[in-house]
Amino acid sequence: MDQNQLKQLVAQQAIKFVPDDCIVGVGTGSTVNFFIDELAKIKGRIKGAVSSSEASTKRLKEIGIPVYDLNTVGPDELPVYIDGADEVNHHLHMIKGGGAALTREKIIAAVAQQFICIADESKYVPVLGAFPLPVEVIPMARSHVAREIVKLGGHPEWRMGVTTDNGNIILDVHGLQIAEPVKLEQQINQIVGVVTNGLFAQRRADVLLLGTAAGVKELS
Ligand SMILES: O=C[C@H](O)[C@H](O)[C@H](O)COP(=O)(O)O
C-alpha cells in the first residue's frame, strides 16, 4: 500500500469516532482531506463541523457541511477533533504545523473532548524533532524570537512566502532532539511574540489511528 492508501485507510477508520448529530472538529492537511471525503458520505447524520483552516473550511463547504464559528460551540457540543500530524511518538505527543495551521488546530484541540490523530506509519517516531518544529510568530517579533530559539539550541528558518490564516509568519526550527516535549512546548510559548508552537504535548492525542501495511493500529 502506498502512503495515500494508508491515509485513506485511517480516514475511513476515524469515522467510527464521529457520533450522530454532533459537530465534529476537523483539522488540516492531506490526511484530513481524505477524512473530509469520508465525512461527505455521512453528512446527513452530523450537524456540522468546526474547522482549523480556511483550506478545510472551503472543502467542507464545497461538500455541503455547515461550518460553525468555534465561539458558538461549547465542549459539550464538540465530542471529537480529528487531525493529522507531522510526527507522533508513543506518548501520543505530536509535532504539527507543516501546513501552517497549528494555532487554530491547537485551539480546537483545547475545546474538543477527544483528539483522534490519524497518520500513516511514516509519522510514528521514537523521538520528536527530525521534522522541523513550526512556530507561529507575530511578524515584527521574527528576529527576536529567532534569537531566543537559538538560545534553546534550535536553528530557526523563516518559511518564506507563507502567511498563516491569522496573518503571521512561521519559523521552522531544525536541529532539536525533543527529549521533554511538554517542557519545550512551554519554553517556546513563553517567548514574547510567539503565538504558539507545533508541539502538541500538553494537549496530546487521546487516540492514534496509525495506518500500516498490516492494517490500522489503534493506540491510546
Ligand atoms: O498545519 C498542518 C497540520 O498540522 C497537519 O495536520 C500536518 O501538517 C499533517 O499534514 P499531512 O496530513 O498533510 O501530513
Write out key terms for the chains shown.
6 helices, 2 domains, 6-stranded mixed β-sheet, binds ribose-5-phosphate, 4-stranded antiparallel β-sheet, alpha/beta, 220 residues, Ribose-5-phosphate isomerase A, Alpha-Beta Plaits, globular, Rossmann fold
Protein architecture, described:
The chain is an alpha/beta fold. 28% of the residues lie in helices and 25% in strands. It is built from six helices and 13 strands. A six-stranded mixed sheet has the order 2-1-3-6-12-13, with helices on both faces. The chain has a four-stranded antiparallel sheet with strand order 8-9-7-10. Strands 4-5-11 form a three-stranded antiparallel sheet, with helices on one face. Helix 1 (3-14) crosses helix 2. The chain is globular. It starts with a helix and ends with a strand. The protein binds ribose-5-phosphate. Ribose-5-phosphate is lined by residues 27-31, 83-86, 96-102, 105. Belongs to the ribose 5-phosphate isomerase family. Homodimer. GO terms for molecular function: isomerase activity. Pathway: Carbohydrate degradation; pentose phosphate pathway; D-ribose 5-phosphate from D-ribulose 5-phosphate (non-oxidative stage): step 1/1.
